[in-house]
From TrEMBL:
PANTHER family membership: HIGH-AFFINITY BRANCHED-CHAIN AMINO ACID TRANSPORT ATP-BINDING PROTEIN LIVF
Domain annotation ABC transporter: ranges: 6-238
Name assigned to this protein: ABC transporter ATP-binding protein
Keyword terms: Amino-acid transport, ATP-binding, Nucleotide-binding, Transport
Single Gene Ontology MF annotation: branched-chain amino acid transmembrane transporter activity
Length: 241
């Protein structure tokens, strides 16, 4: 079997003396959508940020295409065709939609800028309508679309998506998850998705992991996890949208 695109091995991450990740093992294979679900504060976002180099793991190893990236700086990791759409969107509020997308393309030197811009506008038509508008004046859903599009402008092989549905209306969530599924199916984009909305995430994902207090407690296909009684009770009751 070929090696995973991303392999997390025994990773421990601390904030000062507090251990946030307690020896995490996880794989993301080329062409997969892998979801990491869990309650708020379980350590999901910490794992995603650790993969992207901030904070760095104190113990364990993170391998990307067989290369050890555990001690790399974030800007070096970004050059390896890994892109992150962080929790809370973090777009540049004073810049226009167009300028935000230009920033995303900076990693590749912008040589495919025009064609990539068209791709993003096809994927998220709303952004085309808002092209000259400042990022900070967009709705929450539009800002999320912009954050994902900005990440995609760097032409990643691996997209790290942190809580893309957070605080958004069900219809917008459906649109965003639809776009992620489309990118995976049409372009073979590999996606590692951290989500509190377990129903949407597991429905979309090929495989999933459950995190509780900095530890992976369960894994399986998206369908298997959706069918488990304890998952339904902990994460899905009343959560269907």
């Amino acid at each position: 079997m070929s090696e995973p695109l991303l392999a997390v091995r025994g990773v421990k991450t601390y904030y000062g003396n507090i251990i946030a990740l307690k020896g995490v093992d996880l794989d993301v294979n080329e062409g997969e959508i892998v979801a990491l679900i869990g309650a708020n504060g379980a350590g999901k976002s910490t794992l995603m940020m650790t993969v992207f180099g901030k904070p760095q793991a104190r113990e364990g190893q993170i391998l990307y295409r067989g290369q050890d990236i555990t001690r790399m700086e974030t800007h070096e990791i970004a050059r390896l065709q890994i892109a992150q759409s962080p929790e809370g969107r973090r777009i540049f509020p004073r810049m226009t939609v167009y300028e935000n997308l230009q920033m995303g393309a900076a990693v590749t030197g912008g040589q495919h800028f025009a064609s990539d811009l068209e791709r993003m506008f096809t994927l998220f038509p709303r952004l085309k309508e808002r092209m000259g508008q400042r990022g900070g004046t967009l709705s929450g859903g539009e800002q999320q679309m912009l954050a994902i599009a900005r990440a995609l402008m760097s032409r990643p092989r691996l997209l790290l998506l942190d809580e893309p549905s957070l605080g958004l209306a069900p219809l917008i969530v459906k649109q965003i998850f639809g776009a992620i599924g489309e990118l995976n199916k049409d372009e073979g984009l590999t996606v590692f998705l951290v989500e509190q909305n377990a129903y949407h995430a597991l429905k979309l994902a090929h495989r999933g992991y459950v995190m509780v207090n900095g530890v992976i407690t369960m894994s399986g296909t998206g369908r298997e996890l959706l069918a488990k009684e304890e998952i339904r009770a902990a994460y899905l009751e009343g959560g269907r949208q």
